[in-house]
Design a protein that fits this description.
The chain is mainly α. The protein has a domain of about 80 residues: Orthogonal Bundle (Ribonucleotide Reductase Protein R1, domain 1), CATH 1.10.40.30. About 60% of the residues lie in helices and about 5% in strands. It has 20 helices and four strands. The chain has a two-stranded antiparallel ribbon with strand order 1-2. A two-stranded antiparallel sheet has the order 3-4. Strand 1 and strand 2 form a beta hairpin. About 40% of the residues are buried.
C-alpha cells in the first residue's frame, strides 16, 4: 500500500528467498511442524495420542487459517494461543493435544533457530558465489602489475589479481565464521516455562529418561542433531549475537571491497558494471558513479550497527527470561539477514562484471615507477664500482628535483632521464629503460595469487560446487523490473542471482 510504511529491505533490496524465510507464512508453518513433531514424539514415548490425531494435524499443516487466528488474537491477546485455537478449528479430533506440555517458547524459540539456520545457509551459498567469481577474476589478472597503495599513497607494485585475493581472504574468514555459527546452532527443544521440563515430568509421570528422549527426538525430527543442554524459558540469546556478529563480519568485508572499488573507479583503473542505459547522475549526464558499491557500503553500515542489538539483548536478559528481547529480536535478526542478503546480491553482481582498464593502470604505474626503481638502479651502480652512500645521496637529490617538476609544474616524471645524465651511475637511458619493466617489481604477487586460489580457495569451492549458483540458470531466471532514477535494479524472484555478463551485452 502506498499510504503505509514498508521497509526498503523488503520492497527494494532483499531477495525473494530471504524474504520468505522470515515471512509469517514460513513462521507459522514451522510452528505447525513443531506441534506435529511434539505430538508424534509424545505418542512414541507412550502418551495417549492416536495416529488419527497425528494424521489430522499433518493434513492441515500448510493450510494456515489466518483470519481465524487474527480474530482470536484480538480477543485473547496472545499470538501462540491464537494459532493453537486456529489449528484446533481445522483439527477437531486433535485440538486437545496440540501444544501439550509446551510453552510459547517451544514454537517461538525453536522456530527462530530454524529460520536463522536456513537464512545463514542461504548467506553461505551467496558468499561462496562471490568467492568463486572473485577467484576467477584474481587468476585472470594475476600478472597485471598495478600500483599498490599504503595510506592511499603510491607504494610498491602489486598485481590486480593479488589485490583481489585480499578481498577473497576476508570472505573466506567469513565463511569459516558462518560454518562455526551453523555448527553451534542447537534447538531449544522442549524445556518448559523455566527450563526445568517440570510440565513434561508431570505428563510422563516423572520418567526422566522419556523426558530426556523427548528433547532429542524432536530435534531429530526437525533436522537438528542436538538441543541446548540447559536453558531458561528461552535458548541463550548469545546465539543470536553469534549469528549477528557473523553477518557483521560479512558486512565489514563487503565494505572493504566496496570502498576499494569506489577509489579505483575514481582513479579510472577499474569500474563496477554499468548498463547501456544507466543514468549516473540526474544533473551530470557524463558521470559513471559507483552506485552499487556505495549501496553495499550503506547497507553494510546498517548491519554493523545492528549487531549491537542482539549483544545488548543477550546482556540484559534477567534470570530465566524477560520479554524485552521480543520486540528487538523481531526487528534486529530478520533485518540483519535481509540486509546481508542484499549486499551479497550486489557483490555477486559487481564481482561478475568488474571492468579493468589496463592502459590507465599502466599510465599511473609508469608515473611512479621511476621512484620505485631507484633501489635497483643504485644496486646495479654499486655492482659496477660506485659508492653506495654517494649514489644514495645523489638519487635523493634528483628525486626531489623530479618530484618538484611533477608537483609544482604538472610536468612529466623525468627522474630516469636525470639519472642517465649522471656519469657516476654509468648507465645509459636505454639501460635504465630496461629497469622500468613493471613485472620486475611485483615480487611473488602472481605466484601468491595462484597458490592461494589453487591451494586454499578452489578446494572449498569444489567441495561446495553443488550448492553454488549455476551461471546459465542464473541468467535465465534474471528478470528486470523497471528501474527508478537511482537504478536500484531489482528482480521479482531472482535478485539473489543477479549476474551481469558485461555492460555491452545489456
Amino acid at each position: 500500500m502506498n499510504n503505509t510504511y514498508e521497509s526498503p529491505l523488503n520492497s527494494r533490496y532483499a531477495s525473494e528467498e530471504m524474504k520468505y524465510i522470515f515471512s509469517p507464512d514460513k513462521k507459522f508453518k514451522t510452528w505447525r511442524k513443531l506441534w506435529i513433531a511434539l505430538a508424534e514424539t509424545e505418542k512414541e514415548l507412550g502418551l495417549d495420542i492416536t495416529q488419527e490425531q497425528i494424521d489430522e494435524l499433518k493434513a492441515h499443516q500448510d493450510e494456515i487459517n489466518y483470519e481465524v487466528a487474527r480474530e482470536r488474537e484480538k480477543l485473547v491477546r496472545h499470538d501462540v494461543m491464537s494459532h493453537v485455537y486456529a489449528y484446533g478449528q481445522q483439527c477437531p479430533k486433535a485440538k486437545g493435544i496440540i501444544h501439550l506440555g509446551a510453552t510459547s517458547c517451544y514454537v517461538g524459540d525453536n522456530t527462530d533457530v530454524i529460520l536463522m539456520v536456513e537464512a545463514m545457509k542461504l548467506v553461505r551459498v551467496k558468499l561462496l558465489s562471490v568467492i568463486e567469481k572473485l577467484s576467477e577474476f584474481a587468476l585472470k589478472y594475476k600478472d597485471l602489475p598495478t600500483l599498490g597503495f599504503t595510506h592511499f599513497q603510491a607504494a610498491q607494485t602489486t598485481t590486480v589479481g593479488k589485490r583481489a585475493t585480499l578481498w577473497i581472504q576476508d570472505l573466506m574468514m567469513d565463511l569459516d565464521a558462518v560454518d562455526f555459527a551453523l555448527s553451534s546452532a542447537k534447538l531449544l527443544g522442549s524445556k518448559g516455562t523455566t527450563g526445568t521440563q517440570a510440565s513434561f515430568m508431570e505428563l510422563f509421570n516423572n520418567d526422566t529418561d522419556k523426558v530426556k528422549k523427548l528433547d532429542k527426538m524432536i530435534a531429530e525430527k526437525m533436522g537438528f542433531k542436538d538441543v541446548f543442554a540447559v536453558s531458561g524459558q528461552t535458548y541463550t540469546r548469545k546465539l543470536d549475537s553469534v549469528f549477528a556478529n557473523v553477518l557483521g563480519g560479512i558486512a565489514q568485508s563487503c565494505t572493504k571491497f566496496s570502498n576499494d572499488m569506489r577509489l579505483l573507479q575514481h582513479l579510472k583503473e577499474m569500474e563496477e558494471p554499468f548498463e547501456k542505459n544507466q543514468i549516473g547522475s540526474s544533473a551530470m549526464a557524463y558521470k559513471r558513479n559507483p552506485m552499487r558499491s556505495e549501496r553495499m557500503a550503506s547497507l553494510a553500515r546498517y548491519i554493523i550497527v545492528d549487531t549491537l542489538n542482539p549483544a545488548f539483548t543477550a546482556a540484559n536478559q534477567w534470570f530465566e527470561r524477560t520479554l524485552d528481547d521480543s520486540a528487538n529480536k523481531r526487528l534486529s535478526i530478520p533485518e540483519a539477514f535481509l540486509a546481508t542478503d542484499a549486499i551479497l546480491n550486489i557483490y555477486i553482481n559487481v564481482s561478475n562484471g568488474l571492468v579493468v582498464y589496463p592502459k590507465v593502470i599502466e599510465k599511473h604505474l609508469m608515473e611512479e615507477l621511476p621512484f620505485m626503481a631507484t633501489e635497483n638502479i643504485m644496486m646495479d651502480a654499486v655492482k659496477a664500482g660506485g659508492d653506495r652512500q654517494e649514489l644514495h645521496e645523489r638519487i635523493r637529490e634528483l628525486s626531489m628535483e623530479a618530484g618538484a617538476v611533477v608537483k609544482n609544474e604538472g610536468g612529466k616524471n623525468d627522474l630516469i632521464e636525470r639519472i642517465a645524465k649522471e656519469p657516476m651511475f654509468g648507465m645509459s637511458l636505454e639501460d635504465l629503460q630496461k629497469v622500468l619493466d613493471p613485472k620486475k617489481y611485483v615480487g611473488r604477487a602472481p605466484q601468491q595469487t595462484e597458490e592461494y586460489i589453487n591451494e586454499v580457495v578452489k578446494p572449498v569451492i569444489e567441495a561446495n560446487k553443488d550448492g553454488l549458483i549455476d551461471k546459465a540458470e542464473a541468467i535465465r531466471r534474471l528478470q528486470y523490473e523497471k528501474p527508478d532514477l537511482q537504478m536500484a535494479f531489482r528482480t521479482e524472484k531472482a535478485l539473489s542471482y543477479l549476474l551481469f555478463e558485461g555492460s555491452e551485452k545489456l
